[in-house]
Amino acid sequence: MDTIHLLGYAGALVVGLVLGLIGGGGSILTVPLLVYLLSYNPITATAYSLFVVGFTSLVGTFQKHKKGLVDFKTGLAFSFPSFMAVYLSRRYLVPNIPDILLQSEDFELTKEMVIMVFFAIIMLLASYSMIKNKKKTNTPEKKQHYSKTFVQGLIIGTITGIIGAGGGFLYVPALVLWANIPMKKAVGTSLIIVSINSLIGFTGDIQTLQIEWGFLLLFTLMSILGILIGVFLSKFISSKKLKKGFGFFTLIMAIYIIYKELYIS
Q1: Which of 60, 62, 152, 234 gives 20 to 30 Å between its CA and that of 20?
Q2: Contact 167, 127 (CB under 8 A)
Q3: Which ranges does the record mark as transmembrane (predicted)?
């Protein structure tokens, strides 16, 4: 096992640690780690990210369920349209995007570049949601009509399918603002949606990509170990400060990806 792969597995441990500490952000670390450290192309990296985040989120769901912080009924209502969108985007949309979208004498816009820049834009939105101070509101629980939930699930599912992210940072505000679920329960509920979406989305990739199962399973196991450590450490560390700190880190990473893809390329 070479040094690069050892660093990759150490990175997987950090991915899980972050998920355990702040309840999200796994894909924000996983995709750049696979692309820039382990030299996987963005298509494969986003597929692997779905697998890793899917299984680590399952562990997180179990942890939250024990505390009564998972609304399975609402979670499954979001999951159905979302996993359809994730699967279809991974199975048909992403593989059929042309390899070269735009070409001139001194510039070439490739599919891989577009996916990474789109991922960076989502990271910018995620960093903003983590950095800003959220005002607490006491909103009574009031369920919206399922037709709205269906459309919202389709939109978020398509986005997460393209970028290979679990989408927790998108589902949490959606559950709070649209489904009127309290914040703590929204975090737990988002994990079950992320688990279902990510793993079903990954099945779309199995049919179009060659998977290095040995590497992927070991990477995932290291990530699961990290989430267990993170959940334990979260009892002793301020999640608010951690989330804001990780938000600034995400912001820097997003700027770096945009610079690397658009300027250096």
Answers
A1: 152
A2: no
A3: 12-37, 43-62, 74-93, 113-131, 151-174, 213-233, 245-263
